[in-house]
Amino acid sequence: MINHTDVSPMKTTPDGIAVYFLDRDPEFFPVVLHFLRDGPMNIQCHLPIDPVSLRKIHMEAIYYGLFKLSSIVAHRMCNFLMGSDTFSPLEE
Asked: Which GO terms describe its biological process (predicted)?
């Protein structure tokens, strides 16, 4: 999922599980977590409506390699910029 070569495990647990430390903005991680748990089905209700926050979530989605989330957020940003006050989810 995270495909950055500069991200490596901080340590490994005794049973061999890698532990990572992600120094990212915690403000938008709940949206990422909701997406990871539930997928694209209910993500619209967790997305903000302001374009600055949407852009930051878009950047987080790209960082984590969540391209479906990135696409959903980009679609919502486009709707916002086009003046639509309703947002329809992307088709699967």
From this structure: protein homooligomerization
Q: Which range (13-17, 39-43, 49-53) has the least confidence?
A: 13-17
Judged by DSSP in three states, 72 sits in helix
Is residue 19 helix, strand or coil? strand
Per residue in 5-31, pLDDT tens? Answer: 555 556 777 888 877 777 788 999 999
Run of H or E residues at 60: helix 51-63
In a domain, 89, yes or no: no
What is the rounded (10 degree) CA torsion for 51, 55, 61, 66? 70
Q: Which residues contact 16 (CB under 8 A, 6 or more apart)?
A: none
* Domain residue limits at 57: 24-81
Looking at the 3D structure of the chain, how many domains does it have? 1
Examine residue 5 and state whether it is found in any structural domain, yes or no.
no
CA–CA dist 55, 78 (Å, integer) = 11
